[in-house]
Design brief:
Elements: H1 5-23, H2 30-41, E1 44-48, H3 52-64, H4 69-82, E2 103-108, E3 114-120, H5 126-136, E4 141-143, H6 144-153, H7 164-176, E5 190-195, E6 201-207, E7 228-231, E8 235-241, H8 243-248, H9 251-260, H10 265-279, E9 289-295, E10 300-304, E11 311-316, E12 319-326
Parallel strand pairs: 3-4
Antiparallel strand pairs: 1-5, 1-11, 2-3, 2-6, 5-6, 7-8, 8-9, 9-10, 11-12
The protein binds glycine.
Glycine binds next to strand 8.
């Protein structure tokens, strides 16, 4: 009889369990041992970009009080959504071509439940709307006006989150009307993954999307699969960068599946970048993308496209204040 993926996963995980059981010589079942890995290695938070360090600190605060990874990822990225110095996420985010601020976000928990919102206007914390969709509706994704009406019905405040600064940047851009350069600040989504003290993993991803995008354009960040994926038996991944390229390879899901088949987190992120290169042989040098991954045993990895541009933030027992790490890149 052939080996099912789940059996293979069990075997792959048993490698991790074997290590854990050296330190836990008891009679726990495999599942108990797997779930003990989180406490074995301690809570951990990884997020895209140096600005993730503040989000990580907030997420770790939740985890260190015994909170769930779901609460941690939501509370983590809310910091970035409210931070006016991050001009590609939430409040003071970049506008679309017509001067509207439309936000995309998604969240996924250790049970595989997920919620998502796209093209949401006038709400400061799209990640919390995504969580409300997950928890209070039978749906996964709401967009545009429907998403706004749902948010207001749930008590979210409809407010002006377009700043004078965002309007000034947009007006400057209108002088040239050019396609934004492939610099990180035009796509620098926050994706954040957390493991709690029970070893459960969740993820969140939130952005204002590509600067000066066509109205209605949706990138990878609210899409479960490309922008974020969590499988609590294996690990999780999330993405930043040019959403169209990430969607074409279903980047985050691909990375989790590669880890399932035994690939190391960094190698799995590299393979996702490699597939983008293969699909865009002429243009890949202008497609900045970055992936981060967190495996069930606590091991992390990352990979970017453009030389030295992609860095990420890691906060855990060994780095309680958080550490910014430059990811290896394809064009190194
Ligand atoms: N990764 C963000 C976007 O392309 O919208």
């Amino acid at each position: 009889m052939g080996m099912t993926r789940r059996t293979m996963l069990g075997l792959a995980i048993s490698g991790f369990v074997a290590k854990a059981s050296i330190r836990h010589p008891n009679n726990q079942s495999n599942n108990q041992q797997i779930s003990s890995l989180g406490s074995e290695f301690g809570p951990k938070v990884i997020s895209t970009w140096p600005f993730g360090i503040d989000a990580n600190a907030n997420a770790m605060d939740v985890l260190s009080k015994g909170g769930s990874s779901l609460d941690a990822v939501e509370h983590g990225v809310r910091i970035t959504e409210a931070d006016p110095t991050v001009t590609s996420v939430g409040y003071n985010g970049s506008l679309d071509r017509d001067g509207h601020l439309t936000l995309d976000a998604c969240i996924m928990d250790h049970r595989g439940m997920c919620g998502s919102v796209a093209c949401l206007e006038h709400i400061k914390h799209p990640i919390s709307v995504a969580r409300a969709i997950m928890e209070k509706t039978p749906h996964v994704m709401l967009v545009g006006q429907g998403a706004l009406e749902f948010a207001v019905s749930q008590g979210f405040t409809k407010e002006n989150i377009v700043t004078e600064d965002a309007i000034r940047r947009w007006e400057e851009w209108k002088q040239s009307n050019a396609i934004p350069p492939p610099t990180p600040e035009n796509h620098d989504t926050i994706g954040l993954l957390a493991m709690d003290s029970n070893g459960n993993i969740s993820g969140a991803c939130t952005t204002s999307g590509l600067s000066y995008k066509l109205p209605g354009r949706v990138g990878d960040s609210p899409l479960i699969g490309p922008g974020l994926y969590v499988d609590n038996e294996v690990g999780a991944a999330t993405a930043t960068g040019v959403g169209e390229a990430i969607i074409r390879v279903v980047g985050s899901f691909l990375i989790v599946e590669l880890m399932r088949s035994g690939m190391e987190p960094e190698m799995a992120c590299k393979e996702a970048v490699k597939r983008i290169v293969k699909k865009h042989p002429e243009q890949h040098a202008s497609l900045q993308v970055g992936f981060i991954a967190l495996r069930k045993d606590g091991k992390t990895g990352a990979y970017g496209m453009r030389k030295g541009e992609f860095s990420y933030s890691l906060t855990d027992g060994a780095n309680p204040k958080g550490k910014v790490i430059t990811a290896p890149s394809w064009l190194d």
